[in-house]
Amino acid sequence: MYAKGNVDLLNYEKSVAIKGTRYPSEFGEKMGIRVSKLLAKRNCSIVSGLAKGIDTCAHKGALDVAGKTIAVLAHGLDKPVYPKENRNLVKEILNSGGLLISTYPNGRKLIPQFLAARDEWQSSLSDGIIVIETGIQDGTNITIGHALKQNRPVGIIDHKQLKNGELSFIKQAQGNLKYISENKAYPLYTEKSIREFENKLKEIA
Predict the structure, then answer these.
(1) pTM above 0.90?
(2) What are the Cα distances from residue 205, in Å, to 12, 101, 143, 149, 151?
(3) What angle do CA 154, 16, 62 make, to 5 degrees?
(4) What is d(CA 85, CA 2) in angstroms, rounded to the nearest whole number?
(5) CB 176 within 8 Å of CB 131
(6) CATH code given to domain 2-204
(7) Would you call 52 exposed, middle or buried from its count of C-beta atoms within 10 A (0-12, 13-18, 19+)?
(8) Backbone angles phi, psi at 68, to 5 degrees
(9) Do 179 and 132 form a contact (C-beta atoms < 8 A)?
(10) Closest Cα to residue 150, out of 162, 158, 142, 159?
């Protein structure tokens, strides 16, 4: 494993991965930032993969409240940051005492397979994961699968409980509903439920 930044975050008291689709709804974007802020203020480090969409919201939410965040990259740490839209975000992460992690040595360029492999590490580096929005075929399912195998608690936003259930029909919520219906994830829809999920992280931290 290769690291750049504040390696003390690897031993932080609590850490949670916040994950989701690259193409969230407007609600999903707002919820991603809100959940990240809430947990960062409660002394959780926020882990994500620097991808567009929910990953970006997760990192930004932590930074907005001077929290700590870890970005897992899918290429060598000396290579241009992918996606290029988040190169300034990486600078903010490092300047705020955050951390970049990669399992690839300097000089290793990104290839598509590395993006999927990265998802396992986001779960491994965390005490649990929270999924904001995911479709049935979304890449976030890879992270969820690893979390379940690793016995990490999985929390997921329950769109049925929000805005009179109207949000349950959007395609970005169909994966959420699937995992909740299969009892594979804790449904989250209030600040209280998120705090209760955070207590489950304490149990295994």
Answers:
(1) yes
(2) 9, 20, 19, 17, 12
(3) 135
(4) 22
(5) yes
(6) 3.40.50.450
(7) middle
(8) -105, 140
(9) no
(10) 142
Residue-wise burial string across 166-189, b where 16 or more C-beta atoms lie within 10 A, e elsewhere: ebbebebbbbbbbbbeeeebbbbe
**What is the C-alpha separation between 142 and 115, in angstroms, rounded?**
10
Asked if 107 and 77 count as a contact pair (C-beta separation under 8 A), the reply is: no
Please identify every stretch of the chain with a pLDDT value under 70, giving residue numbers as ranges: 204-205
Q: Which residues are CB-contacts of 203 (< 8 A; sequence separation ≥ 6)?
A: none
Residue 167's region, left for phi above 0, alpha for psi from -120 to 50, else beta, is: alpha
Q: What are phi and psi of 138, to 5 degrees?
A: -70, 150
Q: Is 81 helix (H, G, I), strand (E, B) or coil?
A: coil
pLDDT at 97: 98
Model pLDDT for residues 50-96, shown as the tens digit of each residue: 999 999 999 999 999 999 999 999 999 999 999 999 999 999 999 99
DSSP track, 142-202: HHHHHHHHTT--EEEE-GGGSGGGGGGGSGGGHHHHHHHHTT-SEEE-SHHHHHHHHHHHH
Residue 8 CB-density burial (10 A; 0-12 exposed, 13-18 middle, 19+ buried): exposed
Strand (E) or helix (H) holding 5? strand 2-5
Q: Cβ(21)–Cβ(136) under 8 Å?
A: no
Residue 4 pairs with which residues in a beta bridge?
A: 100
- Asked if residues 5 and 95 have their Cβ atoms less than 8 Å apart, the reply is no
